[in-house]
Specification:
single chain, Glutaredoxin, Glutathione S-transferase Yfyf (Class Pi), Chain A, domain 2, 2 domains, 4-stranded mixed beta sheet, 9 helices, 53% helix
């Protein structure tokens, strides 16, 4: 059985959602950011044995331990091909899928993370407030590219839902929570994806805190 360590709507939510889409049984533990106390403190020695960076997600499947959200959801898609959550047999469609996934990680989410780091995540003396306007400009450019990927389509890759939709929708939701401006079409796409039953189940699971 999978064991997932995460926290709320952080990148670990992508994995929770993916597990629900794949109908996989799992155990979920909420990790305490910034804490060194107990086995679920992100900075505790016990937790760092499975994730030396002290971050989330961490997914444990037997002797396999993965700590990058995109790698984990692709691992789940490969383990459960019957759920058709990634194009595993069509090379051309897979290349488009990979393109979108890499675009999210390298382009779409980076201005958001830079914005977050310089607002609250970095030590105060390392924050550069002047960066914030630049991150909003960068994100606007990324949204224009995303609109081209999605143009005229219900899903981001091909004609059916895939793990790539999880990456895109979660990143857009992150942007909305950070009060970034969002074109109506992309807002509607995010809402459709978040309206899926698996996403709603994942959200409920993300609220559970270990005793």
């Amino acid at each position: 059985m999978f064991t997932l360590y995460g926290n709320g709507q952080a990148r670990s939510f992508r994995v929770l959602w993916a597990l629900e889409e794949a109908n996989v049984e799992y155990i979920y533990h909420t990790v305490n950011f910034g804490s060194g106390d107990g086995p679920l403190g992100a900075l505790s020695e016990e937790y760092k044995k499975i994730n030396f960076q002290g971050k989330v997600p961490t997914c444990v499947d037997g002797d396999t331990v993965l700590t990058e959200s995109a790698a984990i959801i692709n691992y789940i898609a490969a383990l459960y091909p019957e759920e058709k959550l990634a194009p595993l047999d069509d090379v051309k469609l897979r290349s488009r899928y990979d393109e979108v996934c890499f675009f999210v990680l390298s382009d779409l989410e980076q201005p958001l993370w830079s914005n977050g780091k310089h607002q609250f995540a970095l030590p105060e003396e390392r924050r550069v407030p002047e960066v914030l306007n630049t991150t909003r400009w960068e994100f606007t450019q990324s949204l224009r590219a995303l609109e081209q990927f999605l143009q005229g389509k219900k899903y981001i890759v091909g004609s059916s839902f895939s793990m790539a939709d999880i990456l895109v929708a979660h990143t857009l939701n992150w942007a909305i929570n950070f009060n970034f401006e969002m074109p109506v079409e992309l807002q509607e796409y995010k809402d459709r994806m978040y309206g899926r039953h698996a996403c709603k189940r994942a959200y409920k699971a993300s609220l559970v805190v270990d005793d």
